Amino acid sequence: MSERTGWDRGLSVAADGKGLVGHAGAVLLRRLSDRVGLTRGLAGVLPSSTNAGWRGRAGALVQLAVAMVLGARSLLEAEQLQLHHQDLFGPAASDSTMRRLLAGLDDKTLMNIAKVRRRVRRHVWTLLRLRPGGFPWLTVAGRRLTGWIVVDLDATVITSASRKEGAAATFKGTYGFHPLGGWLANTGESLAMELRAGNAGANTVDDHVRVLAAALVL
Predict the structure, then answer these.
(1) How distant is the alpha carbon of residue 100 from its chain centre?
(2) Over the stretch 56-72, which tens digit does the pLDDT of each residue have?
(3) Contact assessment for residue 111 and residue 119, using Cβ atoms and an 8 Å cutoff
C-alpha cells in the first residue's frame, strides 16, 4: 500500500513496491480512535499550545497506545515504530516528548481522561446496539445473558530485564511487574488496570476490589 496524499486526506494504492508500511492494522486503530471521538476528546483535556513546534498531546498519546498494541515495550521502541509509520501518521513523537506527556498526567488529568473514555465508550456501545447483530451479549451454558455485562479480572506477570521502577521478583521465579486488569468479556475492551510491583499477590482482595470498582464506573 502506498501512501501518497497523507493518511488523513485519503489513501491511494499502487502496486509499485514504494512507500510500503508494515502493521496495516495500525491504520484501523488510529482511524477508529478518530472516528469515535476519542482523539478529539483527549485533545480537550490534555495540554495544548499554539507554538509551531508543539506536538499535539492527544495524537501522541493515541499513537503511543497504537505502538503498544503493535508490541512496543519502551518509549524508544514506540518512537521507532512511529518513524516507520510516519508516511501514514505524520512526524513521529520523540521518546522525550512522550516521556514529558506521561510525566504530566497528574490525578486531575487522569480523571478527565477517564471521563472522556466513558463518554466514548457509551457512544461506541450505542453504535454496537444499532448494528444488525446488536450488542454482543454473552451466552453461558446455553443461556443468552441479554442486558448483562461480564467483567473478567486477571493478573498477568510482565518480565523486565532491568531494574525499572516497581519491578520485583515474581511468584513465577521471574523479575518484573504483576499488573491486575479488568476486561469486558462482551467486547474484549480494557476497563481498568492497576500497575503493581512484581511481588504483588495474584489474589489480593483489596486490589481486586479497587480494580472492579474502577471497571464498573462505565
Answers:
(1) 18
(2) 899 999 999 999 988 88
(3) no
